Amino acid sequence: MYLLLVLLLSGFSLAAQGQKADTTIYDAVEYLPLPLVPGCLPEQHPGWPDDSLRRCAERGLLALISRNVQYPAEARQANIEGTVVVSFVVETDGRMSDLRVVKDIGGGCGAEALRVIQALGEAGLRWRPAQLGGKAVRMRQALPLRFRLEEAPPFHLNERGDSVYTVLDTLPRFQGAGEDSLIAFIFNELHYPRAYRDSCKVGVIETSIFVRPNGAIEIDQQLDFSNLGMDFQWEAIRLINRTAGLWTPAYYQGRPVTTSVPLRVLFKSDAPHCQTANEAFDQAMLLAAEAANEEDLHAALEKWTKAVQLQPNNTELLYYRGSVLLNLNRREEACEDFAHIRRLLGITWFEPLRRVVCGW
Description:
Elements: E1 2-3, E2 25-26, E3 34-36, H1 50-68, H2 73-77, E4 82-90, E5 96-103, H3 109-122, E6 126-128, E7 130-132, E8 135-147, E9 149-150, E10 155-157, E11 163-165, E12 173-174, H4 179-189, E13 203-211, E14 217-224, H5 230-241, E15 247-248, E16 250-252, E17 255-257, E18 259-267, H6 275-292, H7 297-310, H8 315-327, H9 331-345, H10 351-358
Parallel strand pairs: 2-8
Antiparallel strand pairs: 1-9, 3-6, 4-5, 4-8, 7-8, 10-11, 12-15, 13-14, 13-18, 16-17
């Protein structure tokens, strides 16, 4: 089951009551507040009329909310559906204040709607404030969020329109003993680029592949977490291509279907003088495994930081440390890690999130 949200922003405002004279909250203005969503910023589209900017921003805000909201288990089990209304004041600096649920449907939906709006504000979502007489003024806004339960399809459509199944009766299987055979195949068949043997480069390249209903494979995307470079990326691709014909497809309701499988390929040089670099990487991975299982965020952050110190340009470690920093409300430090990833790779694999949290 998944959540379908309907967001109605235009012209929807609540009149504030009991306002103090020096903190007026207006209910009639010349220009309504506008959510400043990446891709729909006024400076990015100087020729767009206000209505076009607003439609773009509202769609962007809807997408942000939809990606972050979680349908409450209590509401799902009780088949609760309906519209929750969250209101807040858009301050003159574009921040949101005085968030409250003005209409709830129960089952935790009101609290979830409020949580998502608060989280977006804490992550850096800002608004162009209301305008009256040529100056910014405070105005209360209301967001109606519609919670509706529907059966989620067992697949998603990729950019080419292929159905990639995520709900499966049986997973795709590599020949022989499955995962053990795959690990052995990678270990035996992977070639470290000879020209780089003395470089001591060490790191992981993760490639996701489609396993088709006939067992054929196709590379979907690739992440070079340690920025090893093209020669290493090509070796990972050549290795994966050699697995062609060695897969049994996934099954759903008795028929073979397409699904995606992630494959992590580890490169280590066997040159004697590279032993120190290899050991530092292994130690960083052990710390990362401990951090991932750590319930206390501060303890997890300490371990992620030690891992990053051992592998300062490992973008996977930087991403996870940045995520923990974000959860600890240390946004500026998180954005430093995210910016480092962008400098190393040119772009991040989580670019929409980075832009929401850190801006352009």
